[in-house]
Each structure stands twice: as C-alpha cells, then as structure tokens.
Amino acid sequence: MKILLIFTLCLISDGGATENVTGYSGGGVLIKCKYYTKYRENQKYFCKGPWTSCSYQIKTGAKNEWINSGRFSLFDDTKSAEFSVMIRELTVEDAGAYYCGVDKYWMDIYTRVELKVKEDLSYVKSISKTVHVGGDLNISCKYPESLRSDPKFLCKTRLQRAACSYKESVKESRKDVNEGKFSLYDDRETQMLTVSIRNVTEQDSGEYWCGAEAAWKSDHGYRVYFTQINLTVSGFPASTVITVSVILLLLLIGIIFLIVILHKRRRTQSPGTMTPTYREANGDYEKDPNVLHFQSKQMTNQSDSVYQSLNPNTNQSDSVYQSLKC
C-alpha cells in the first residue's frame, strides 16, 4: 500500500507533457530538464522504464559540475534551475521511456522523456584526421533528413567532462558563419555541414562533434550529435619537416665527401710508398723509347764507374806497361 500511495502522489506531481527526443545510433543526445527554483538543493536523476520500476541511469546531488555514470552524464545548473542529461554512444536498445526527476520526500517532481533511436547508414558516424601545426582542417558532415531545418554546430568535448561546448551555430542554408579560427557552412540541399579550423595548434587536438539544435529554444528542446571527429595535431608543419630532411641529407652528403677527400690525402702522403695514382700518372713517361735509352746509358756509365772503383790497379798496370815499351 505504501508503494501504491507514493506512486499515486507522484502521478499528481507530473511535471507536464512528454518530451520527444530522436537520436541516431552511434551518436548522442543532450536533454534539458527544467525544475522549480525552490528545488535547487534537491538531488536530480534520470531513470528508464515504467515509473513503477524506473531504473536509475544516473543520480547525483552535485551542483554545477558534470557527473558521469557510464554513458550517462548529468549537470545541475542551479542558476538557471535546469539540469542537463547527455547520453553517448546511442544504440537502438536505448530507445524507450525515461524520466527526468527531482528527488523529494514523498513526492518526486519529474518530466517524461520518450527517446527514439534511429539506425541511419546514409552518413559516416566517425572521422579521424591528422593535421600538422599551422595547417587547416576541412571536413564535411552528412546529416539525417530530419535535421535539415535545424541550426547546426561544431562542438568540442573537454577532458573528463561531458560538456561539448561551442559559441556559434549556423542557422541558414548556404551561409558562412565564422567564430575565430572556426567556420561553418550548411548546405541543406545536400544535407552537408562543412566545418573548418584554420591554422591549427596542438591545443586543437581532441574530440569534436557535428550536431544540430532540435527545437533547442523551447523548454523541451534537445541537441543531437551525429558525427564524431577525432583530430590529432602533429608537432611540426609539413614544410618544416621537408626542409629539415633536405638539410640533414645535404649535411650527410658533405660529411661523406669530406671523409673521402681526407682518406685520399692520407694515402698520398704516406712515406716510402708510391700511390697507384702516381704510377698511373707516370705510366706513359716510363714507356717512352728515348727515356728508356737514356736510362740504359746512365746505367752503363754507372756500371763502368763501379767497376773502376772496384779495380783500382787497372790504371797503374797500363802506366807500367807503357814505360817498359819505351
């Protein structure tokens, strides 16, 4: 009877009409849940299933910070008396009835959310890109037909936070919207959102989402995230890498050339040896007939001189012979 009584009171405290939300498999949704300002300090939750057996997906009393629980995250903004719930990595099994709830003694305050998850294979769900520092990123995100007339945005998630922040959205077809180094262009005829990031830095690395604002201005509006972009920014621009590579190659060639020259000089200057280069350079000179005759004559004279030196009595015998003859 106690359970029945609580359930009856909760029905009386129904927070209003059902909020209809449509997401896409592989993407995500961000849902707004309004509450009265007098309940700022109460715990907030998001549960799934029939109200009689609603299963908590996330519940927290934390204020003004993102709290994560698996694929679900909750942020209670006490200033605007509104808490947001984000669901990531949607699957078709996530479809069904949910409740945004404010925990109260005896009577909870809640809003029913009907979530539909569609499987759309007409566009790419995830894109990975690597860009060098100083380069530009240009990516086109195809989106579902149901989001054609909704404003589009590019947001970036923060480390250990569920928030996916951005400053501008493009609200018209075929019109550029620029915000600093970011630009957006929505062609609704082709259902294509083109996003650009100019002069990227290493701080631009991270996770981005192409998304749409589905009736976001209303209390029951929500955001749809349909394409994930994983951006990696490398440390050096391509031009710098090429320049450094060329310089290193030229330096290597110069070192090799210097080593060869020094090696040749060392061999040439070695004492008591004649290098092959010297012999090759004087080969024709050694084969000349005149040179050979001159060298032969020189060797004969040298032999006579040596003979005479080795036979000192020869001249003396000749002198004695001449004296006796006379």
TrEMBL record:
Where does it localize? Membrane
Q: Which domain of life is it from?
A: Eukaryota
Entry keyword annotation includes Membrane: yes
UniProt keyword Transmembrane helix, yes or no: yes
| Signal peptide, first to last residue | 1-18
GO cellular component annotations of the record: plasma membrane
State the residue spans of region: Disordered.
305-326
UniProt GO molecular function = transmembrane signaling receptor activity
Q: Which UniProt keywords apply?
A: Membrane, Signal, Transmembrane, Transmembrane helix
Q: Which CDD domains match?
A: IgV_pIgR_like
- Chief subcellular site? membrane
| Pfam families (UniProt xref) | V-set
Bilayer-crossing regions = 241-262
The residue ranges of the Immunoglobulin domain are: 18-118, 126-234
Please give the coiled-coil regions recorded for this protein: none
Task: Tell me what this protein is called.
Answer: Immunoglobulin domain-containing protein
User: Where does this protein come from, organism-wise?
Assistant: Ameiurus melas
What taxonomic lineage is listed for the species of origin? Eukaryota, Metazoa, Chordata, Craniata, Vertebrata
